[in-house]
């Protein structure tokens, strides 16, 4: 089978198309694979260094070879390939397209569990969503709005802020603003942070008493430390999220994936496809993602080679 393989950690040019053996066991004939920021971090060797040579890529949609059913899956690698292992497989309902299924699975589950399971969002909340036009962020904006909350999206360009507003954000803020807390039009009660560093610090400090930050990523690549004494003084909380904890709980994974597919099928949640590339151009998708020029979900059409 063909796959986009890396033989070294580094820049977006480390990918090369190669014929490699298909995985053992149950497999999916992949139609589309997703590109996530975590793949960029793995490619750089920043987190969870897989053994080399490696096929990166976590979310796929396609047909389970054993029964021909249309399925989506969240993998621990192996996604940028024409055949992928059938791990954490969920069936996709007819009313949900391949693109939507792919986009709302990994990133949608992240947005949902940060907002609801940890954030306990309700209609009284003022929710700040960082990278509000990004893969997770643009879904979080829609889910927070659907929960009845006021929503403030942070994003780096006018086009990204316009997208977040179109998707339901009541207000937007430029992520390059030197004082993000002061730039907010309302005092937040819940911050969803996938950026970290200065973004995390400024937004967490802006929370109302009894507010909480759900930290789920570090696209800004800065490790954060939190002083418990400061949390007590401000009476705020910090919660962390890792999707693996959902994948570890088969019932939670299946029920929350089914909920996201239901929302996508009804049009309550609509993923934007921010770029569609052939398998040979995985590197270009990575470069776009790390250069912050993308919005929504990036997909790889693994059946197209050029
Ligand atoms: N915890 C989990 O299990 C889990 C699961 C999925 C994703 N994540 C995390 O969620 C975050 C978002 O993932 P995603 O795949 O949806 O990506 P994404 O939001 O589509 O892309 C990352 C965005 O982060 C912002 N950003 C801020 N500083 C950046 C920097 N130094 N370099 C690049 N981007 C920067 C950019 O938005 P602006 O240009 O608008 O600032 C960029 O578009 C990532 O940190 C990812 O690791 C975590």
UniProtKB/TrEMBL annotation:
Q: Write the protein's name.
A: Zinc-binding dehydrogenase
- Domain of life, per UniProt, equals Bacteria
Q: Which SUPFAM superfamilies match?
A: GroES-like, NAD(P)-binding Rossmann-fold domains
Does Zinc show up as a keyword for this record?
no
Q: Which UniProt keywords apply?
A: NADP, Oxidoreductase
Protein species of origin: Actinoplanes sandaracinus
PANTHER family recorded: QUINONE OXIDOREDUCTASE PIG3-RELATED (PTHR48106), QUINONE OXIDOREDUCTASE-RELATED (PTHR48106:SF13)
The record's section on SMART domains has:
PKS_ER
